[in-house]
Amino acid sequence: MKRDATPVIEVRSLQKVYASQGAAPVQALQDIDFSIREGAFVSIVGPSGCGKSTLLQILGGLLPASAGQVLVAGTPVTGPMPGKIALVFQDATLMPWKSAIDNVLFPLEIQKVPREERLRRGDQYLKLVGLEGAAHRLPHQLSGGMKQRVSIARGLAQEPRIILMDEPFGALDEQNRIKMGHELLRIWEATGKTIVLITHSLTEAIFLSDTVIVMGAHPGRILERVEIELPRPRTYDVIGSPEFGAIRNRLWRMIEIEPTDDDTRAVAPEL
Predict the structure, then answer these.
(1) Cβ atoms of 209 and 43 closer than 8 Å
(2) How far apart are CA 66 and CA 130, in angstroms?
(3) Eight-state DSSP code of residue 220
(4) R_g of the chain computed on alpha carbons
């Protein structure tokens, strides 16, 4: 599928500072600048504590920036934008009393999408993620990978331009993580959505992405933007290639490993 070269996300001079009572403010993000073209698949990697999740939540309108701005299709992000941006987190956050299909439909009910349209989208996107046969199962009847598929279908059903994903496969075992990554590529190719993925896995980032943004810590900043020029469609065989290994080694050398707390909780300062 041909991808549009027009930027859909623009981040300009973004900063995030956390004020701490009785202590010096903590600079979580400093001078973040980048753009992402329409339909691209971009991963963000970096050591724990570098502000990856803070950045993603600012992109999604869940956290305010201290300075700078984020534009989505030219519009400043000042809060959640359900018509343009959907978020998928590591925890699928499904409502346990609702079936898979009802979990997918719930955001559409809040947005007052007409019932016929809700049902059409629910069927369409559960089928796209391969769960049409599990539509009426409750979350406790689903595996971890199936729950994440429901979460992805819920995001897709809102028909956003952008999907932001924060370690969506982090809780899965290696085999299922690789399988879900391959499924995510299939869904991306089918929908043409812009995807921004936070991951700690360099292999996952390289295998999935057009571009990998590498962040450093203290404060969180962009070290480099690496274009992944491996041919598509990608198969598992590419992971063992010399070209893949060279990219992985390059990314690894950029990332300074520090004994910091994990940055998946963006409500507290990231030290």
Answers:
(1) yes
(2) 41
(3) B
(4) 18
* pLDDT < 70 positions in the chain: 1-4, 256-271
CATH homologous superfamily of 1-84+162-173+187-262: P-loop containing nucleotide triphosphate hydrolases (3.40.50.300)
C-beta neighbour count of 115 within 10 angstroms: 10
Domain ranges of the chain: 1-84+162-173+187-262, 92-159
Question: Whole-prediction pTM value?
Answer: 0.88
pLDDT tens for 223-237 read 999 999 999 988 888
pLDDT digits (tens, 9 = 90+) for 26-79: 889 999 999 999 999 999 999 988 999 999 999 999 999 999 999 999 999 999
For residues 172 and 195, give the distance between their C-alpha atoms in angstroms, rounded to a whole number: 20
Token representation of residue 226: 């690496």
Residue with tokens 């898979």: 100
Question: What are the helix (H) ranges across 134-241?
Answer: 144-157, 174-191, 202-208
Q: What share of the chain is helix, strand, coil (3-state, %, to 5)?
A: 35, 25, 40
Token pair for 43:
């991963």
Q: Which amino acid is at 251?
A: L
